[in-house]
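Data availability (excerpt). The following record was deposited with the supplementary files.
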Amino acid sequence: MKCYKCHKRMPYVKGMKFNEHKLDGWRCPCGEIYYEPIQAEKILLLNKLKKSKMKAKLGRIRSNLILRLPKDVEFALGLKQGEEVLLQIEGKQLKMSVA
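Predicted structure:
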């Protein structure tokens, strides 16, 4: 990829810091940085979701109660069907984390 500022070739770099996250992208010797678009989109969406409250629906399949997550949460966290998550009860709150 070429830098739009100085037109030099930019090497691909893995694990560059972006806020508290690490993203892949391109870094130019002139100081310009271009992050991998899909990774950056996930981080920006995750930051937006952290600031908001959202509703999720509970459903039932046979004897199991299921929690339906919004598609934005699925994309931002990279969740897939069948993947395991960790649940923790704290007082009257249910906290979920990706395993």
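Summary of structural features: The mean pLDDT is 91.
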